[in-house]
Amino acid sequence: MMSLREIQTEIGALAVEERAALLDWLLHAERQAWDEQIRGDYSASGAGVNLFDDVDSQIRKGDFRPME
Questions:
Q1: How far apart are CA 24 and CA 32, in angstroms?
Q2: pLDDT for residue 44
Q3: So what's the pLDDT on residue 61?
Q4: CA–CA separation, 6 vs 1, rounded Å?
Q5: How far, CA to CA in Å, does 36 sit from each of 30, 42, 52, 53?
Q6: CA–CA distance from 24 to each of 19, 20, 30 (Å)?
Q7: Which has the closest alpha carbon to 21: 8, 6, 11, 35?
Q8: Element (H, E) at 57
């Protein structure tokens, strides 16, 4: 496996068009990873479900301030 320094050196040697294509690929990969994390967190058994439950409970109790 290449080190980060080696990867950076190789990227620096790419043509402008190749760097742009690499950037597009990286951004797409990051967006997909983020989407998967959000889907997991807010699925039926995800960690974010408790957040929704807490907010719903506060709203039912009237224990909240509307955003301006």
A1: 12
A2: 81
A3: 92
A4: 10
A5: 10, 10, 18, 21
A6: 9, 6, 10
A7: 11
A8: helix 49-61
Q: Dump pLDDT digits (tens) for 7-59.
A: 999 999 999 999 999 999 999 999 999 999 999 888 888 888 888 888 889 99
State which amino acid sits at residue 17.
E
**DSSP reduced 3-state for 46:** coil
Model pLDDT, residue 10: 97
Residue type, 45: S
40 CB contacts (<8 Å, ≥6 apart)?
46
Could you tell me which of 32, 9, 11 has the C-alpha nearest to residue 20? 11
The dihedral formed by the CA atoms of 9, 2, 16 and 24, expressed in degrees to the nearest 10: -140
Name the pTM for this structure.
Answer: 0.62
